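Support reply, case 0932

Customer input (verbatim):
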Amino acid sequence: MLSTKVKHNPTLETVLADREAKAEKVKLLATKYHAPVIGIRVNIPGPEKKTPWAFKLYRAAVDAVEKMLDEKGIVYCSIEMKAHYEFLTLVVAHKEAPTLKRYLVEIEESCEIGRIFDLDVYMADGIPLSRAEGHERKCYLCDEPAHACARSRAHSFKDLEQYLISKADVL
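Our regenerated output:
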């Protein structure tokens, strides 16, 4: 079983600095290449996002996206960001943004661990495209909307973490 040991709790300043750096890089890439930018992360509850098991899930997300882009014949370039508190890859993809978003939602909904993936498509202004109506993200542990479970704390942090570790263990 992979370790669950927490390395550190990032400060609010670290989290905000990483988000700002991501937003700036997204705008730079989208403007420079005149193409949408895909953001690849994983949905990990709690403050520690950079664990060995989270990295395995993140790599599975990157691999799934790159495989889809290759299969669809989409020209792309992946850039792994050096974020302090989470794993993040940005991908410049030469395809219409709504089409890319549709493909990414298909990955999230069809892949066994797709609920764990956080796949966004950003336009030149840095604003992500939202999911289409009827494609709400589902909870890891039940079929309820994820935002409702998170808001009501329907599941314990420990249960969510154990689920994620179990998925990473089989990768």
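We compared this against your earlier run and they match. Two observations from our side: The helical segments are 12-33, 52-72, 97-110, 146-152, 157-169. Confidence is low (pLDDT under 50) at residues 1-6. Please reopen the case if you see a mismatch on your end.
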